[in-house]
């Protein structure tokens, strides 16, 4: 068992902007690492020994002698090359130590988060410290670039003032000094565009630093020149200017003369032209410069006395570069009507000027970069940039330039808690209009009018200038009087509308809440222009029958009825260990679980598996005990439960990963649980509004109730429907529902069973809409929390493709949740309008439960269907009984004689032969003929021998035929349809048929 003993320290860099470079403690303790165990399983011991302030999941191990980071997933034996030289040179090696500090990715995300969420002095301090942070850790630049840190700098710099922009440029210059940083800039053209935009700034120091950085960028490699051209064209095209307009403004000295800026601007142009790969691009750049007056600018500066020699040199370089590609032949000859002699003279003059420029360059000893990308060359050319792009003196001078505009201190607003990134994303998504569709569910018919709750007092007042009605007083003229006391005669009815019915007997009452659609102040709403009750048809009732059935009678009181086990390290208690071991039986092998969680592999882990692992997440105490026991007993294997918890503890941000993954796998089911009931409720309201059978039932029930109550009610609350099956007549003890159903079936035979037509209401009755609203809020909460989980996970090494996939998923979820919230609000408002349509009083609508409302209607419809089937069965039985009584116990002769009294049966005999037919009608009643007589008549008429004919009886109610062969003693009487059959020809004769059969085929 190989071990590695060394000193350990920690560096408190949990806040990158407020950290030191001195490891603690100053007298480091010793720690012994196992070389055969991954460092992730040993880092907790180091953390505990040092009592470091870091979060355990965010820790990393760094070697002090070369600054490299150790791979926590690997063992020390696998990283021999990294620790080479750590303990060399005898005693001197003891000075080296392994430093516990925050992971690079975590520090980078803390930096980016700080830059995004800070303002004022805090942001200024962060930007000022950024350059030093990059200097202290060379590995941080690569992580910063990979984590979209350049985008962060651009966004912050675009909204900042000149001082903040100077700090950002200093940090950006430090990034560009590293190859990783320069490569990141090459792949992020938006940063180059921002630098070129700053060239047009009004502040000299910003312009100077931006030009320096662009020069470093172009001189790094020739392939960067086209990237700068691309950035210049993009920026100037957006601003509607010609390319290089910012540089030309500097050369034109529109903001005053500044020789240093002139030299930098002209040098940038020359370096860019020198690095262009093709002449077409070269011509495009020169054409743009010439159109903006480059030739005149060059002449003015060259001919001016006292012009800086560096500037003259740069203009000469520009002239020589133009002449070297024969630009004057292609471009200037086309615009001038000059002779060939003057053209030759012009070229020779330029050649002389080029030679002069070369001599001046040698005399001035101008240093050039070697275009090999070395940081040394950049440092030699721009020493100020390496040491610090902005000196304190320049910053102070720049601050004085704007001192006058900043003399008055601005009042500092009260600090408000900054919004999270997820809140900003959520607000942006809410502001985006979208179609109300959730997969195959269509909510597009929910318009903006459904955003308005008709019950809001402000909406009612604003629309109709009416005040909301107060709750009804105790007694109104249109309300029925209270029921009389037992044994007292009823009081006379309140004068008002004449009663529709006059009763002679006292009947039971229906205690419903009457609907009075008077002073209809909600009529402006499209759903409430007419009440349901105003659309019902009047129903005629047999009042005498109802009066007899529902006569009030005295109630009767109801009667009351009377050791060879394998040695393992066991740390967990038996209950916890057994629970984990049982859970492991339904999970994939532990060695695959870690990879599945890190990659969100849905094929390796199911939703149930994730939920199971969420209950197994180890605590810090459990992890610590397991690691200590493993180090204390290196030769003894861990128990299966302990080994599994140790694997889980090695996964960074385990809880966040599992919760994000669980939300991803739960979302479709959660969305379905919310969207489908909303769709059912919407469809259910449409079904109820358009259902004719419901109107028939309500009309009939209203008419019966008005008769029994002796009132002229316009309607009643539908909550009374649940009591209808309980009300029974006093004669046959049949329910009121039975009588209503009988009347509906009798008067409206086209009516249905109602239950089969309101399936959506039946499904809505099974849903708790209060819980649905809670689930919708929970979905929103979990989605926002998932954004935070993703941000936390991204701090640790997460694949960009996986991060993008999860980010796209959460964005899609957020949009769909926003749609669901809009749909939910509009459907609830539509339900309120629907209740008004049904006649519910406005003050009570908010108390109506959708679940209870749907349940009442669904159960009533089910009761109605059952009762209707029973009514139809009874009706069919009575009809069958009447038909049965017509022939019950009667002889066939009695039936024949009875029929003969009523009518004579003249049966045509149809003869079919060779496609033609002829018919013969027996002139006397068929029942009085003997078969022999009929046979003789047919034989003579059809010209057949009598012996070849016979009769076939075709009974109406049988599927077979009876053949009657007449003899001398035959006395059968024929009283129904029959056929006359010939051996060769089939003949059919019946009273009503029009079908002719010949050789068993229909003609």
TrEMBL record:
A GO term from the CC aspect: cytoplasm
Domain spans labelled GBD/FH3: 18-447
Cellular compartments annotated: Cytoplasm, Cytoskeleton
Stored PROSITE patterns: FH2, GBD_FH3
Keyword Phosphoprotein annotated: yes
Record GO terms (molecular function): actin filament binding
A family per Pfam: FH3_FHOD1-3
Region span, Disordered: 392-422
Listed InterPro entries: ARM-like (IPR011989), ARM-type_fold (IPR016024), FH2_Formin (IPR015425), FH2_Formin_sf (IPR042201), FH3_FHOD1-3-like (IPR056771), FHOD1_GBD_N (IPR041387), GBD/FH3_dom (IPR014768)
Residue ranges occupied by any FH2 domain in the UniProt entry: 497-890
GO BP annotations, alphabetical order: cardiac myofibril assembly; cortical actin cytoskeleton organization; sarcomere organization
UniProt cross-references to SUPFAM superfamilies, sorted A to Z: ARM repeat (SSF48371), Formin homology 2 domain (FH2 domain) (SSF101447)
Keywords from the UniProt entry: Actin-binding, Cytoplasm, Cytoskeleton, Phosphoprotein
Similarity-based family: Belongs to the formin homology family.
Name the UniProt record assigns to this protein: Formin homology 2 domain containing 3b
Annotated organism of origin: Cyprinus carpio
The organism's taxonomic lineage, starting at the top: Eukaryota, Metazoa, Chordata, Craniata, Vertebrata
């Amino acid at each position: 068992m190989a071990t590695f003993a060394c000193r350990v320290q920690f560096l408190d860099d949990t806040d990158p902007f407020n950290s030191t470079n001195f490891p603690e403690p100053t007298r480091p303790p010793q720690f012994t690492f196992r070389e055969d165990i991954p460092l992730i399983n040993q880092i907790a011991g180091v953390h505990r020994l040092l009592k470091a302030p870091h979060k355990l999941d965010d820790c990393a191990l760094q070697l002090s002698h070369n600054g490299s980071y150790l791979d926590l997933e690997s063992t020390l034996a696998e990283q021999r090359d990294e620790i080479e030289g750590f303990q060399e040179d005898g005693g001197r090696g003891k000075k080296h130590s392994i430093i516990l500090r925050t992971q690079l990715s975590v520090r980078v995300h803390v930096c980016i988060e700080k830059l995004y969420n800070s303002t004022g002095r805090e942001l200024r301090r962060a930007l000022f410290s950024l350059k030093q942070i990059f200097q202290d850790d060379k590995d941080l630049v690569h992580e910063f670039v990979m984590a979209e840190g350049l985008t962060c700098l651009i966004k912050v710099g675009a909204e900042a003032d000149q001082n903040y922009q100077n700090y950002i440029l200093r940090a950006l210059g430090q990034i560009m000094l590293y190859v990783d940083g320069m490569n990141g800039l090459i792949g992020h053209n938006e940063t180059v565009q921002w630098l070129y935009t700053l060239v047009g700034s009004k502040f000299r120091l910003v312009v100077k630093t931006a030009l320096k950085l662009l020069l470093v960028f172009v001189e790094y490699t020739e392939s960067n020149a086209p990237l700068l051209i691309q950035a210049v064209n993009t920026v100037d095209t957006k601003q509607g200017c010609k390319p290089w307009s910012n540089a030309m403004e500097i050369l034109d000295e529109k903001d005053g003369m500044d020789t240093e800026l002139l030299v930098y601007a002209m040098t940038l142009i020359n370096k860019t032209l020198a690095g262009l790969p093709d002449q077409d691009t070269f011509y495009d750049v020169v054409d743009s410069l010439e159109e903006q007056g480059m030739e005149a600018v060059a002449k003015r500066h060259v001919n001016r006395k006292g012009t800086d020699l560096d500037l003259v040199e740069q203009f000469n370089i520009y002239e020589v570069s133009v002449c070297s590609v024969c630009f004057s032949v292609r471009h200037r000859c086309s615009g001038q009507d000059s002779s060939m002699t003057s053209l030759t003279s012009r070229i020779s003059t330029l050649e002389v000027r080029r030679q002069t420029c070369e001599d001046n360059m040698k005399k001035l000893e101008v240093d050039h970069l070697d275009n090999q990308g070395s940081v040394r060359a950049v440092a030699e050319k721009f020493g100020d940039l390496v040491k610090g792009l902005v000196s304190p003196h320049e910053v102070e001078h720049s601050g004085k330039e704007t001192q006058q505009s900043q003399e008055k201190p601005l009042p500092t607003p009260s600090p408000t808690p900054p919004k999270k990134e997820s809140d900003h994303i959520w607000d942006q998504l809410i502001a985006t209009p979208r179609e109300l569709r959730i997969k195959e569910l269509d909510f597009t018919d929910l318009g903006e009018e459904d955003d308005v709750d008709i019950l809001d007092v402000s909406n009612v007042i604003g629309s109709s200038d009416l005040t909301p009605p107060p709750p009804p007083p105790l007694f109104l003229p249109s309300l029925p009087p209270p029921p009389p006391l037992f044994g007292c005669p009823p009081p006379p009815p309140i004068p008002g509308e004449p009663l529709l019915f006059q009763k002679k007997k006292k009947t039971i009452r229906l205690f419903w809440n009457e609907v009075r659609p008077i002073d209809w102040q909600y009529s402006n709403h499209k759903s409430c222009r007419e009440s349901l009750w105003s659309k019902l048809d009047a129903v005629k009732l047999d009042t005498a029958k109802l009066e007899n059935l529902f006569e009030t009678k005295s109630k009767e009181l109801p009667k009351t009825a009377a050791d060879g086990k394998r040695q393992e390290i066991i740390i967990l208690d038996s209950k916890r260990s057994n629970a984990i071991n049982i859970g492991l039986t339904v999970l994939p092998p532990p060695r695959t679980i870690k990879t599945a969680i890190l990659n969100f592999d849905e094929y390796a882990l199911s939703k149930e598996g994730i939920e199971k692992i969420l209950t197994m997440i180890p605590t810090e105490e459990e992890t610590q005990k397991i690691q200590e026991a493993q180090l204390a007993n290196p030769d003894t294997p861990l128990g299966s439960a302990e080994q599994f918890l140790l694997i889980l503890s090695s996964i960074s941000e385990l809880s966040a990963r599992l919760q994000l993954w669980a939300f991803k796998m739960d979302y479709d089911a959660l969305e379905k649980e919310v969207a489908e009931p909303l769709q059912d409720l919407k469809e259910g309201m449409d079904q109820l509004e358009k259902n004719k059978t419901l109107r028939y039932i309500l009309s009939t029930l209203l008419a019966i109730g008005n008769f029994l109550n002796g009132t002229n009610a316009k309607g009643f609350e539908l909550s009374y429907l649940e009591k209808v099956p309980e009300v029974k007549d006093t004669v046959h003890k049949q329910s009121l529902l039975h009588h209503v159903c009988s009347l509906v079936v009798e008067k409206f035979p086209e009516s249905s069973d109602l239950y089969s037509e309101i399936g959506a209401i039946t499904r809505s009755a099974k849903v708790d809409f209060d819980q649905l609203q809670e689930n919708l809020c929970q979905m929103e909460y979990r989605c926002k929390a998932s954004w935070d989980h993703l941000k936390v996970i991204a701090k640790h090494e997460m694949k960009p493709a996986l991060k993008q996939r999860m980010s796209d998923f959460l964005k899609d979820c957020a949009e769909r949740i926003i749609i669901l919230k809009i749909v939910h609000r509009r459907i609830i408002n539509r339900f309120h309008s629907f209740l008004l349509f049904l006649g519910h009083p406005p003050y009570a609508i908010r108390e109506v439960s959708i679940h209870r409302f749907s349940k009442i209607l669904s159960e009533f419809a089910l009761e109605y269907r059952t009762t209707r089937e029973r009514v139809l069965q009874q009706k069919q039985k009575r009809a069958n009984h009447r038909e049965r009584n017509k022939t019950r116990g009667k002889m066939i002769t009695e039936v024949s004689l009875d029929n003969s009294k009523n009518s004579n049966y003249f049966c045509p005999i149809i003869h079919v032969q060779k496609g033609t037919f002829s018919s013969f009608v027996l002139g006397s009643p068929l029942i009085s003929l003997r078969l022999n007589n009929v046979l003789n008549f047919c034989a003579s008429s059809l010209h057949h021998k009598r012996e070849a004919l016979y009769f076939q009886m075709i009974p109406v109610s049988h599927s077979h035929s009876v053949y009657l062969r007449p003899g001398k003693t035959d006395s059968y009487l024929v009283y129904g349809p029959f056929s006359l059959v010939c051996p060769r020809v089939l003949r059919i004769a019946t009273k009503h048929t029009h079908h002719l059969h010949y050789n068993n085929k229909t003609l």
